[in-house]
Amino acid sequence: MSSISRSDVAHLARLSRLAVTDEELDQFAGQLDQVLAAVARVGEAAVADVPPMTHAVPLTNVLRPDEVTPSLARDVVLAGAPAAEDGRIRVPRILGDAE
Amino acid sequence: MTGTSSDLTRADVAELSRLLGAGEVSAVEVTRAHLDRIAADDGRLGAYLHVADDAALASAAAVDEARASGAELGPLAGVPVALKDLVVTEGVPTTSGSKILEGWLPPYSATIATRLAEAGTVLLGKTNMDEFAMGSSTENSAYQVTRNPWDTDRIPGGSSGGSSAAVAGHLAPWSIGTDTGGSIRQPAAVTGLVGHKPTYGSVSRYGLIAFSSSLDQAGPMARTVLDAAVMHEVIGGHDPRDSTSIDTPLARLADAAREGAAGDLRGVRIGVVRELGGEGHTEGYEPGVLARTREAVEVLAGLGAEVTEVSCPSFDLALPAYYLIAPSEASSNLARYEGVRFGLRAGDDGNRDLDEVMALTREQGFGPEVKRRIILGTYALSSGYYDAYYGQAQKVRTLITRDFGAAFADVDVLVSPTMPTVAFPIGARVDDPISMYAADLCTLPASLAGLPAISVPSGLSDGLPVGLQVMAPALADERCYRVAAALEAAQDAARGHRLLDELGTPAGAA
C-alpha cells in the first residue's frame, strides 16, 4: 500500500472542496500516513471469494404512493439559507471573468 | 419519596413516571428541578450545547394542564429527556457539534424526536458531541469540552459524551445517543450508564444528521436497563420516511428487562469472545477492565447461564475495516455542507466564485478530525485505491458478519468488555488518531454487522466505571436487555445500591 505525501493531501483536499492551510497539510500528511499503515491490514485478509457487504440489512427499493403532499414552506426553507434574495437562495458567482 | 429537587434529579425514569402518574409531583416541578440542576452544575460538566428552558417549562405545563383536565396520558408524560445535538428538532438549534451548522434552526423534527414528544416527554435541551459524531472522547466538539462526572479531568466517552455526562451527572434522567462505531456504548461504559445500540434499521434515522449511513443508529442511554428498554420501545419501529427502516414489529423489550431482573438465566448460552480481551488478545486492555469482565461473566454463570469461550478470528480486522468504511461514507455525506442551502457561508465577497466559497466555507466550518476523515474517505474511494481499501473493507465486513453467524449457531449472546480502558484523561489522545481509534476495538464488530449491542455497568476500576458489552443476533435486541438486566439486578443487590449512587452530588449543586 502506498503512502500519502503532502501534495497528495493537497490534491485530495481540492477534490473534497476543502481549503487547507500549510500547517494542516503537514499535519494531515503525517497522520494519514499513520492511519493508512494501521488500516493496511485489510489488504491481508483472504477475501478472494467473499462478496462485499454494503449494508447490514438487505436494501430494497422502497416506493411510496405517488401523491402530492405538502412540503416545507418556501420562507421556512429560505430562513435557513446563508443568503436569500427575491424568494430564492442567492449563490456565489458560478462563472469566472473569462467565461 | 415526595420530592426535593435533588431526589427528582436522582430518580430513574420508572420512578419519575410513577410519581407523575400518582400526582405526587407535577411535570413542571420535575422539569424545573432538572433545569435548576443544569443551571447549577453544567458549568462544571459542559454536557449541554443548548438548554430549552422556556419551551421545556411550557410543554411541562401543558402536560400538567392535560392531566388536570382528566385527559388520558401515557406513563412517560412529563418525563424530561435530553437529545444528542444531531437529532434534528424543529425550531431548536441543532449543530451536530460543528461550526458549519452554528445558528441553524431546523424546519422539521426527526422521527425519534416526534415519537418522544408524542409520548409526552419534555425536551430539556441538546447535548454536546464530537463534531458530526466523529470521535471517542467528545473532545472534537467545535464548542466545548464535556467532562466525566466521575472525574472531571477525564473524558465522558464519545461521540455521545454530552448525553452520557448529562445522565450520569443527573442533569437529565435519560437521553438519546447515536452509535456509528460505539458512540452510545462507550460513553455509557465510562460514565456508569446503560447504553444500547439497536439492530441497524430498527430505529428510524429520519432526521438524524448523517455520518456513516450504513452504520449510524440512534438508541437509548439511561441509568437502568429497564429505562433503556422503555425508551427503545418509544423510539423504535418502522418508519416509512427511512428507506432502511425494517418493517417488523419490535420485540417486547421492557418485558425482557423485567424478566432478566428476576434473575433466572437458566437455558441462556453466553459466549465470551476470545478476540476481545481473551487469552492472547489482551494488549491494550487494562487489567481492571478484564477483571470486571471476568467477574460479570461469573455472576451471569451463577444465575444459571451456560458460558463458553468462542473465537471470532475476523474481529481483529474490524478496526481497519471501520476506519475505511466510515470515512468513505462520511466524505460523501458531508458533501452537503457547501455553504449554499443552509448553515455557514464564508468568503462570499462578490469576487470569489462558487468553488472558492465552498472550499473556504468547509475550511472554516469543519474541525481537524472531520477534515482528516473527509480526506481519508476521498482517498479510499478514489480510482486506483477503491478495490484495495473500500472494496476490501466491505468484504471484511462480510467475514465479520459470518463470524457472528457461526458464533450465534452455538450461543444466544456474545459478551466482551465495552471498552479496553476506563475513561482516559482529557487531552491524552487528542493528537494521536491511532490511539484514539483504539478505544473502538470492542464495539466495532457489532457496528459493522448491524447487530444490537448493549453496555451495562460491571463495576469500578480505580474508582472509574467499566462496562460489559452484550451482543445479540439481528432483531434479537431483547436478549441484550434480558442478560444486562440480570447482571444489573444481581450486582445492585450484592452492593446494596446502584453503581451510579457511588457518584455523589457535588456540593452546592442539589
Describe the structure.
Chain B: InterPro entries: Amidase, Amidase_CS, Amidase_dom, AS_sf, GatA. Chain B: Residues 29-480 form the Amidase domain. Chain B: Belongs to the amidase family. GatA subfamily. Chain B: One of its GO terms (biological process) is translation. Chain B: It catalyses: L-glutamyl-tRNA(Gln) + L-glutamine + ATP + H2O = L-glutaminyl-tRNA(Gln) + L-glutamate + ADP + phosphate + H(+). Chain A: Belongs to the GatC family. The complex is a heterodimer of chains A (99) and B (510). By secondary structure, chain A is mostly helical. Chain A has a domain at 6-43. Chain A is built from three helices and two strands, in the order αααββ. Chain A has helices at 6-15, 22-39, 74-79; strands spanning 84-85, 88-89. Chain A has a two-stranded antiparallel sheet. In chain A, helix 1 packs across helix 2. Chain A is flat. Chain B is an alpha/beta fold. Chain B has one domain: Amidase signature (AS) domain (Amidase signature (AS) enzymes, Alpha-Beta Complex), CATH 3.90.1300. Helix content of chain B is 40%, strand content 12%. Chain B contains 17 helices and eleven strands. Chain B has an eleven-stranded mixed sheet, sandwiched between helices. Chain B is globular, with a radius of gyration of 22 Å. The two termini of chain B are 16 Å apart. The mean pLDDT of chain B is 96. At the A-B interface, helix 1, helix 2 and helix 3 of A face helix 11, helix 12, helix 13, helix 14 and helix 15 of B.
